[in-house]
Amino acid sequence: MRVAQIDHFTLRVAQDMLPVLLDFYSRVLQLRAGARPAFSFPGYWLYAGDQALVHLVGNAPGGEPATTDFLPTGKFDHVSLRTHGLKSTREHLQAQGIDWQEAQVPGIALHQIFLRDPVGLKIELTFDAAELALAGPSTRPTAY
Prior knowledge:
- 18% of the residues lie in helices and 30% in strands.
- The chain has three helices and eight strands.
- A four-stranded mixed beta sheet has the order 1-4-3-2, with helices on one face.
- The chain is globular and about 50 Å long.
């Protein structure tokens, strides 16, 4: 076996959160809702090109206990999406009123933007550090 990359991630939420998350992932991350199998529960598959990266599932049972972990998503800290267009991403997030932080990965040519979705999942947008030359230095708080 050889794992190559993340195929998708799934958010299992109460059905009434589906419209909020659909709006966030469509508007902020510019993914688009697309084909999804005819499951017996509501949801969306959100695509980047031909790849369904985010699966939203509206079948969380009511009354699930709140997490007692320090993260809003339990022990799962974040998901990273390889991204292009650092300058335009900054401009888009600013226009959408999204709060974010940035960080350069020490010793590796990667630059990161971190933000949170409406249910608290931390999302890392990872860029090639060479994009900093075009985008300029960050004016945002540092994530580390």
